[in-house]
Amino acid sequence: MPVNTGLADVSNDFLLAAVVIYALAMLAFACDFAFGKKPVKAAAAARVPALVGVAAGSGEPPASSVRAGDGPAGGGPAGGPAVVTAGRKGVGRWVAAAVALVCLGLTAHITGVVLRGVSVHRLPWGDMYEFVTALTCVAVAFFLAAMIRYRAYYLGLFVMVAVVLVLGLAETVIYTPAGPLVPALQSYWLAIHVTAMTLATGVFFVAAVAGITYLFVDRHARRVAAGRPAGSDGILRRLPGPEALDRLAYRTVVFGFPIWTFGVMAGAIWADRAWGSYWSWDPTETWAFITWVVYACFLHARATAGWRGRRATVIQLLGFGCLIFNVLVISLVVPGLHSYAGLT
Amino acid sequence: MTGLRTPPDTGPATPPGDDFAEPEAAAQAIARKPGVRLGVAGWLRWGWRQLTSMRTALVLLFLLAAGSIPGSLLPQQGTNPAAVSQYYSSHPVLAKVFGGLSLFNVFGAPWFAAIYLLLFTSLVGCVLPRTLRLVGSARQPPPKAPRHLDKLPFSASYAAAGEPEAALQAAAAVLSGKRFRVRTGPGWVSAEKGYLREVGNLLFHLALLGCLVSIGLGGLFGYKADRLLVTGTSFDNTITALDEFHPGRMVSPGDLQPFTVSLSHFSASYVTSGPLLGQPSAFNAAIRYSDTPGGPTKPFTLSVNHPLVVDGTRVFLIGHGYAPTFRITDGTGHVVFSGADPFIPVETSGLTSEGAIKVPDAQPQQLGFIGVFLPTAVDAGGQLESRFPAPLNPMVSLVSYAGNLNMNSGPSQSVYSLNTSGLHRLPIDPRPLSVGQSMKLPGGLGTLTYTGYQQWVSLAITYDPGQLPALVSGIAVLAGLLLSFFVRRRRVFVRAEATGSGETAVEVGGLTRSDAAGGFEDEFSSLVADVSGQAAKE
User: Fold this and answer.
1) Where are the domains of chain B?
2) Do the Cβ atoms of A293 and B64 come within 8 Å?
3) Per the CB 3.0–4.6 Å rule, which of A211, B111, B229, B455 could disulfide with B266?
4) Cβ contact A294–B65 (<8 Å)
5) In 10 A of CB B52, how many CB atoms?
């Protein structure tokens, strides 16, 4: 079937609109840091045990209380990264506006990706440009879910900065016009392998943002603890404690790692179908393996005394660095079986 | 190794109690103590503990990742031998150093094998004791309830009507109904659940070993081969008929499945307009094959993601190109060459291809030609170039040589290039030829006619008995990973005491051993609700 270039153009318009809206959301998040109301310090709020009445069945209701997660971490009730701003409904105007913009941008983004798929009659992640637009879409969707589930609004600015940069780069530097797939990619394994890789990359993206934020917050917390001048802490004071960020990053990696593992394995099965060997140490395969090993290092390091915290976070960021290196350098520059980027 | 054995976030000061930290610390203590002499057995034990410690495993994991990097950045003998020899000629000194370090064959290098073998030994050292411990702990009932349940990370209390025994019985019933393993004692109930976490962890690591064994199996008993096949020709799956043959250590020539493949027709489609002009959209090779020599042939359409499977051996379409056909008569008037000569594509957008024609039978002198084939030749400012990969205007341009081809002496030559050391170039311009045109060689050495072209495909033939074990191991890796990440090991304790006013004060405490997946708080409060509700009903 021929490529519907009209639809492809509309898809481009939607994606450009998404970049602009994300940029506005980014500004709104920044305004929240600059002008929003100062929240009650999270740690102080978390120490107050939340008293939850437990409804009893029939009969006389026993007086009961559940005190959950007033753990030594002090990270918040139930140890989740959840409660980082104290108030349950204390979402500032700027944050509300930013979240609305993110939703709007995500709608445009999804529309753009879907239209691209419709215009070429296939899944819209067949070349590097499409892969990047899809993975940023996953990152934003995952972030939005995390933001609503864990009220992690503080990450908004950082995720949006990264998304605007990457998506902007995709639209300008690695843009590839819509077209049919090369024969090597004409397989249902594209849907399985690349979808998993896209999902995992989007999830690791959010973990990396949490990790970087953790490093800043942790450094600040150490300075404060050591009694040294901590400098301007306007933003840092509004962020959750290092424990909560560390936990969020860890849980995000734990969510993404099996998806990555599955994606690499699906790729191996596809390689076996297409090239006759499930593993041939192609440069892209090798770096997917390196990424996997480094994330495995992170998971082990976090369970090892003396490696938790900063060191483990550095390893996590190193893993994401390997992933990005694979996407941006290996796939585009080093010749190999995965050279489908559509760039010459 | 990912399992945490302590409740989460007991603070950075407490070691998060991986199973290996303790013996390691002990071993170091012994080793560092002055004056204490370790015997051979002592040193071996110390070495083993070092090797199986988490720290060593981490270092080995890092080494594995770092060691793979040169394998992705430098050309590798296994995948791209031509690029390796290219590297040797352009950086002779550096290449010698790299070659000495096996950097052109990283994944078969002794040092790389040393890393992963040590890693897997370390892994076995981790996993075996843990399996034993798991079996032990699976047999044991949960521990006694601690005295002060309100000190646990999760706790709740309520007052129930009736005797403490009744409240405890109700709690035990609820917990065993939720498939907790329950132990009761005087005034307390303790319960534990989530043993699958450790099972998953072990499964993951054992399955990694399974992957390694499967890869080894493929390396020993499998083989890979390549064959270039021109339209209208056929080949048998025997060693002499294959262009490249990479057998495993245990493969003998008789192990090859004796099938025959012939190529009837090859077709390629390309995008004909728009910005992606020339991008391929379909490759199909119509072949006939028979699984026994001389047996009946069956048709099959080979395409890129659609291999042919014969007797467990698979045939893949991995490349294609053009083979221009020539008819060459020598100085004595004999036809000394007639047929197709495969040229190798040197770029993808126009499939410009290069090759060599060797005519050892020509008289009075042997003839050789170096040629460029342009599928869609277009004049670009006085220079011909190919603008499209399909053969819309197939032209060939040849440089002619005569002399000695040196084919009977010296190292074996590539059929795609010409060794010109014994040849002299003939004084004739490489005029581009269209199909049907001829070129008369000077000095009465003969005539060459460009008669047309054929297409060829390159086929990969692979046999890998480790495939299925690798798939099973891969699925087990994933299953183990999911279990160890998302099953939570948790303990719940209940204590009940009579308050004296006919009521019973019940305390519930909870403890979880991982922070991988949150959400124990919800489970805990619903458990408390069930337990207290149950007590209220009775």
Assistant:
1) 21-137, 141-194+488-537, 223-463
2) yes
3) B455
4) yes
5) 22
Provide the CB-side half-sphere exposure for A232 (13 A, CA).
Answer: 4
pLDDT by residue (tens digit) across B134-193? 888 777 888 888 888 888 888 888 888 888 888 888 889 888 888 888 998 888 999 988
Going by pLDDT thresholds of 50, 70 and 90, the confidence category of residue A56 is very low
Whether A55 sits inside 8 A of B521 (CB atoms) is: no
The CB density around residue B94, as the number of other CB atoms within 10 Å, is: 12
The CB density around residue B412, as the number of other CB atoms within 10 Å, is 6
Of residues A230 and A328, the one with the higher pLDDT is A328
CATH of B141-194+488-537, one of 3.30.310.80, 2.60.40.720, 3.90.640.10, 3.40.50.300: 3.30.310.80
| Dist CA B430 CA B437 (whole Å) | 13
Residue B326, both tokens: 């020539």
In this prediction, residues A1-25 reach a mean pLDDT of 88
Q: How many CB pairs under 8 A join A and B?
A: 241
Residues A327 and A336: their CA atoms lie apart, in Å, by 13
What is the Cβ-side half-sphere exposure of residue B84, based on CA atoms within 13 angstroms?
A: 17
Which of B360, B463, B341, B368 has its CA nearest to residue B408?
B360
Between CA B179 and CA B184, with CA B181 as vertex, the angle to 5 degrees is 125
Angle at B375 between CA B370 and CA B378, to 5 degrees: 100
* Regions in chain B scoring below 70 on pLDDT: 1-37, 410-411, 513-519, 534-538
Mark yes or no for CB contact B521/A289 under 8 Å: no
Digit-coded pLDDT (tens) for A72-123: 333 333 333 333 343 444 567 888 899 999 999 999 999 999 999 998 888 8
pTM of the model as a whole: 0.80
Structure confidence at residue A191 as a pLDDT band (50, 70, 90): confident
Looking at the partner chain, which of A73, A254, A277 has a beta carbon nearest the beta carbon of B9? Answer: A73
Q: Among B204, B217, B276, which would you mutate to test the A interface (most chain A Cβ atoms within 10 Å of its Cβ)?
A: B276
Strand ranges, E, within chain A: 64-68
Cis before residue A180, ω within 30 degrees of 0? no
CA A51 to chain CA mean position, Å: 33
Whole-number Å distance between alpha carbons of B226 and B221:
17
The pLDDT, as a whole number, for residue B105 is: 87
Q: What are phi and psi of B508, to 5 degrees?
A: -125, 135
How far is CA B348 from each of CA A174, B270, B271, B387, B460, rounded to the nearest angstrom?
Answer: 20, 12, 13, 10, 20
Rounded to an integer, the average pLDDT of A261-271 is 93
Tokens of A18: 């998404």
Contact residues, A window 179-218, toward B, CB-based 8 Å cutoff = 179-184, 186-187, 189
Angle at which helix A283-301 crosses helix A310-325, to 10 degrees, equals 170
pLDDT of residue B520: 79
Contact A250 B516 (CB under 8 A): yes
Residue to substitute from A54, A190, A282, A331, interface B, most B β-carbons within 10 A: A54
Give A238's DSSP letter: G
Cβ partners under 8 Å of residue A162, min gap 6: A139, A205, A209
